């Protein structure tokens, strides 16, 4: 797999989160060897729910050009 952020190699790792309030202290995820980005099932699900927007697309509709 490749990283979305830097196109680096993702390595499957066991990740520990001692501050998780659900009681789950360890889980499996993917960690990028280049930039250190972490992807797990929760992050992947959230990214599927939100659609990325193009930069400047929202600003074009908010501020009409006055002639």
What does this structure look like?
The protein is flat and about 35 Å long. Helix content is 22%, strand content 24%. The protein has one domain. It has 67 residues and is an alpha+beta fold. The chain has a 3-stranded antiparallel β-sheet with strand order 1-2-3. The protein has 2 helices and 3 strands; from the N terminus they run βββαα.
SSE topology:
Blueprint: E1 10-16, E2 26-32, E3 38-39, H1 41-49, H2 57-62
Antiparallel strand pairs: 1-2, 2-3
Report strand order across the widest sheet: 1-2-3
Q: Tally the helices: what do you get?
A: 2
Distance between the termini: 50 Å
The general outline is: flat
In short:
The chain is of the alpha+beta class and 67 residues long.
Q: Main traits of this protein?
A:
three-stranded antiparallel beta sheet, flat, 24% strand
């Amino acid at each position: 797999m490749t990283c979305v952020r830097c196109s680096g190699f993702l390595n499957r790792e066991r990740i520990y989160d001692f501050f998780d309030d659900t009681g789950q202290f360890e889980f499996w995820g993917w960690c990028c060897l280049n930039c250190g980005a972490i992807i797990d099932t929760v992050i992947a699900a959230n990214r599927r729910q939100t659609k990325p927007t193009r930069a400047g697309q929202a600003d074009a509709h908010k501020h009409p050009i006055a002639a």
